[in-house]
Write a structure and sequence with these properties.
Elements (H helix, E strand, L loop, with lengths): L3 E6 L6 H14 L4 E5 L5 H11 L8 H25 L3 E5 L2 H11 L4 H12 L6 E6 L2 H11 L1 H4 L12 H17 L4 E5 L4 H16 L2
Parallel strand pairs: 1-3, 1-4, 2-3, 4-5
Helix pairs in contact: 1-9, 2-3, 3-5, 4-5, 4-8
């Protein structure tokens, strides 16, 4: 594969989706072929699974079911969208990937590390991001931000299942992300999500320019 796989990770409300959009705009301006996508989600089948995972009405969903649905969504996403784009030489920007599964399901839900890692590897066909931007933020601040952004829908009771989990869960998720970054320091760039949006974007542009040579 000649393309590059760039992922954006982090706790809820850190601003990773905004940063992916800003990077996509930068790549557009510089004529760099790329696509943007997200997890859970991407192609239609994966997006349908996403709706099931995040639907707050599915409060009876077990942790095992949640994990397997995420793995199913990723398997479809990777084979149908990610691999072809990378083989075509495109930069792929993805909002969450396997690191989120490890952080949320292993650290957040306290599921088995090795078993989850094996499932992630199977679904991803061994695909590992070339670069990961981890936008770190205090969970309480992040959840408040996220709910403020979505307050119109949140007031109607449509906070998604992940946002609705308790603060202890989100603290474990953040700790998980930071531990994953410590395991692979050459792949991760950890950025403080509390600094201004423009400052985060500048750090990412400086890094990606050196990384892809644009």
């Amino acid at each position: 594969m000649s393309g590059k796989f760039i992922t954006f990770e982090g706790p809820e409300g850190g601003g990773k989706t905004t940063q992916m959009r800003l990077l996509a705009e930068y790549l557009d301006k510089n004529g760099v072929p790329h696509i943007t996508t997200r997890e859970p989600g991407g192609p239609p089948i994966s997006e349908q699974i996403r709706e099931i995972i995040l639907d707050p009405e599915n409060s009876a969903m077990t942790d095992r079911t949640e994990l397997l649905l995420i793995i199913a969504s990723r398997a479809q996403h990777t084979e149908q969208l990610l691999m072809p784009a990378l083989e075509a030489g495109k930069i792929v920007l993805c909002d969450r990937y396997s690191d989120s599964t490890m952080a949320y399901q292993v650290f957040g839900n306290e599921y088995d590390f090795e078993q989850t890692l094996n499932l992630c590897s199977m679904a991803a066909q061994g695909l590992v991001p070339d670069r990961t931007y981890l936008i770190d933020i205090d969970p309480k601040t992040g959840i408040e931000r996220s709910r403020a952004v979505h307050k119109d829908t949140a007031s109607k009771g449509t906070v998604d299942r992940m946002e609705a989990k308790n603060l202890k869960f989100h603290h474990r998720v953040r700790e998980g992300f930071l531990k994953l970054a410590q395991r692979e320091p050459d792949r991760f760039l950890v950025i403080d999500g509390g600094i201004p949006i423009e400052a985060i974007h500048k750090k990412i542009i400086e890094d990606i320019t050196a990384f892809i040579g644009k």
